[in-house]
UniProtKB/TrEMBL annotation:
Protein name, entry field: GTP cyclohydrolase 1
Broad EC category: hydrolase
Domain of life: Bacteria
The family this protein is said to belong to: Belongs to the GTP cyclohydrolase I family.
GO molecular function: GTP cyclohydrolase I activity
EC number(s) stated in the UniProt entry for this protein: 3.5.4.16
Keywords: GTP-binding, Hydrolase, Metal-binding, Nucleotide-binding, One-carbon metabolism, Zinc
Protein residues bound to Zn(2+): C84, H87, C157
Subunit structure comment from the entry: Homopolymer.
Amino acid sequence: MRAAADVPPYDAARAEAAVRELLLAVGEDPEREGLRDTPARVARAYQEIFAGLRQEPEDVLTTTFDIGHEEMVLVRDIEVYSTCEHHLVPFHGVAHVGYIPSTEGRITGLSKLARLVEVYARRPQVQERLTTQIADAMVRILEPRGVLVVVECEHLCMSMRGVRKPGSRTVTSAVRGIMQNATTRAEAMSLVMGR
Ligand SMILES: Nc1nc2c(ncn2[C@@H]2O[C@H](COP(=O)(O)OP(=O)(O)OP(=O)(O)O)[C@@H](O)[C@H]2O)c(=O)[nH]1
Ligand SMILES: [Zn+2]
């Protein structure tokens, strides 16, 4: 995995040319009225969809407060839109991100947890890596006593093509530190499931 600093600048012209080629390859006419602006439009959309390649978790997990809260903090149902790296089609669903702060009670802004999810979701991904990367970034930056990340997504590569099983959801989790302790983990999971 390349660090953000080593990722070359986004090449919109190259993306545009590639989309035009793709349209030709599937038998479309990229000059017809409805498609004329599509390569440029898709190139702009891809820049947004893959913006996370040029971001590091340190860019977003910045604000930390010492408010002395040492108990579990869990943000549930963070909307996730990511792109399956095998088929370049979306997978989408929710992430639940929880942690138990360090004993000094170092916590981060709640929105920063959602931003962290975005940094890793806006890359070509597999769900397992997305889940692990979120958890490991929290461990590294917040130095909490425990972390739990659960991601539940529907993969369009399984719904709209291939095996064609719309509605199936894949659940992945990553558990670090004292969240691995059975009681703590059970408390966190009951908060995740309690909707
Ligand atoms: N573990 C994992 N697998 C994924 C993820 N996204 C897509 N896949 C799977 O990646 C696999 C790629 O399999 P291949 O056999 O190389 O590709 P394919 O012929 O298009 O496979 P089908 O989707 O079964 O038609 C498929 O089984 C997908 O369901 C993910 O996030 N995690
Ligand atoms: Zn896929």
